[in-house]
C-alpha cells in the first residue's frame, strides 16, 4: 500500500476530490511554505496565541505555524512515504528574513497577528522574483537533496508535478477568456503570470538536476486552463477538471 506525501499546493492535493475519487488512506500534505523556509531554523521567541484567528481555517493555521516552527520536515521523515510529490505553485509569495531564519510571508501569516510579535520587529522582505530569493531556494534544494538521501526518505519515489499559471480561464458560462498579464496574489499584491512561469521553469529544471531519478508528471499544455467554477474560485492555478483527471491518471500509473 502506498503512503503518499505532498510537499506543494492544492494543484496536487485537489486531484482526488475534484475527480471524485478517495485520496490515499495515508496522505501527508505539507503546504503554505517554501523550500528556504522549510529547511530553515525555527523562529525563536514566538508566543503561541490562545485561540486560532477566526479568519483562518484549522488546516491553514496549522500549516502557517509549521512554517514558523519548522516542524514539517520531521513529520515528513516520520511519515516514511513510499511516494513524495513536489509541486512549486506555492513558491509564489515573498519570504521574510528575521533573526537567524526565514519564513514564508503568506496570507495566513499576514492575517494571523503573529507579525506584531517581537521576533518580527526587524524582519525584512525577500522578494520572490529577486536573485537573492532564487539563490536561497537553490541552496535549500541542495540541502533537501542531502536530507532525502540520508534519511528513510531515500527509499521513496520522488515525483515532480510540473505546474504553470494559466493565461486563460473558463468563465461561469464555460466560455474561454484571457487573464490580464498580472494577477492578484492577496491583499493587493500583484504578480506577473509570465514572470512566475519562467521562475517555475527554472525551479523545476534545478529540481530535476538535483533529483535525476525523479519521475515527472504534467498535464498537457492545452489542459492548463483555469476555471471560474473551481471549488476555490478563480485563480491562474485553479484549473478545469480535465487537468486533474490527466495528472491523477499519471500518478496512478506510478503506483499511487
Give structural notes.
- The protein is an alpha/beta fold and about 260 residues long.
- It has a single domain, classed as 3-Layer(aba) Sandwich (Rossmann fold).
- About 35% of the residues lie in helices and about 20% in strands.
- The protein contains nine helices and 13 strands.
- It has helices at about 10-15, 15-20, 35-40, 60-70, 70-80, 105-110, 130-150, 195-210, 240-255, and strands spanning about 5, 25-30, 85, 95-100, 100-105, 125, 155-160, 170, 175-180, 180-185, 190, 215, 225.
- The strands form four sheets. The chain has a five-stranded parallel beta sheet, with helices on both faces.
- Strand 8 and strand 9 form a beta hairpin.
- The model has no long low-confidence stretch (mean pLDDT about 95).
Secondary structure layout:
Elements: E1 4-7, H1 10-13, H2 15-19, E2 27-30, H3 35-38, H4 58-69, H5 72-79, E3 83-86, E4 95-98, E5 101-104, H6 107-112, E6 124-126, H7 131-149, E7 157-161, E8 168-170, E9 176-178, E10 182-184, E11 190-192, H8 193-210, E12 215-217, E13 226-227, H9 241-253
Parallel strand pairs: 1-2, 1-3, 3-7, 7-12, 8-13
Antiparallel strand pairs: 4-5, 4-6, 8-9, 10-11
H/E topology pattern: EHHEHHHEEEHEHEEEEEHEEH
As a percent range, the share of strand residues is: 15-25%
Number of strands: 13
Unreliable stretches: none
The second-level CATH architecture is 3-Layer(aba) Sandwich
Overall outline: globular
- Give the structural class: alpha/beta
Just give the CATH class. Alpha Beta
CATH topology category name: Rossmann fold
Look at the structure and give the mean pLDDT: 95
Helices, by number, come to 9
Radius of gyration: 18 Å
The total number of structural domains is 1
What topology, given as strand order, has the largest sheet? Answer: 2-1-3-7-12
Question: Main beta sheet: strand number and arrangement?
Answer: 5 strands, parallel
The CA-CA distance between the termini, in Å, is 9 Å
Amino acid at each position: 500500500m502506498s503512503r503518499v506525501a505532498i510537499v506543494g499546493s492544492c494543484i496536487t492535493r485537489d486531484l482526488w476530490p475534484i475527480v471524485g475519487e478517495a485520496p490515499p488512506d495515508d496522505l501527508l500534505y505539507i503546504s503554505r511554505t517554501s523550500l528556504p523556509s522549510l529547511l530553515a531554523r525555527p523562529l525563536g521567541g514566538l508566543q503561541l496565541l490562545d485561540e486560532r484567528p477566526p479568519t483562518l481555517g484549522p488546516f491553514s493555521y496549522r500549516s502557517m505555524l509549521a512554517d514558523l516552527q519548522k516542524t514539517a520536515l520531521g513529520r515528513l521523515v516520520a511519515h516514511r512515504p513510499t511516494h513524495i510529490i513536489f509541486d512549486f505553485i506555492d513558491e509564489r509569495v515573498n519570504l521574510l528574513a528575521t533573526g537567524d531564519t526565514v519564513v514564508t510571508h503568506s496570507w495566513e501569516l499576514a492575517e494571523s497577528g503573529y507579525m506584531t510579535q517581537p521576533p518580527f520587529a526587524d524582519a525584512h522582505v525577500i522578494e520572490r522574483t529577486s536573485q537573492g530569493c532564487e539563490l536561497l531556494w537553490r541552496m535549500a534544494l541542495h540541502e533537501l537533496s542531502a536530507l532525502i538521501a540520508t534519511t528513510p526518505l531515500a527509499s521513496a519515489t520522488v515525483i515532480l508535478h510540473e505546474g504553470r499559471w494559466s493565461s486563460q480561464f473558463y468563465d461561469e458560462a464555460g466560455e474561454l477568456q484571457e487573464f490580464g498579464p498580472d494577477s492578484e496574489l492577496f491583499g493587493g499584491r500583484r504578480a506577473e503570470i509570465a514572470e512566475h512561469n519562467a521562475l517555475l521553469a527554472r525551479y523545476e529544471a534545478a529540481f530535476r538536476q538535483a533529483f535525476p531519478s525523479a519521475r515527472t508528471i504534467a498535464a498537457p499544455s492545452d489542459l492548463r486552463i483555469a476555471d471560474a467554477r473551481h471549488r476555490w474560485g478563480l485563480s491562474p492555478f485553479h484549473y478545469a477538471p480535465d487537468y486533474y483527471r490527466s495528472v491523477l491518471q499519471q500518478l496512478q500509473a506510478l503506483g499511487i
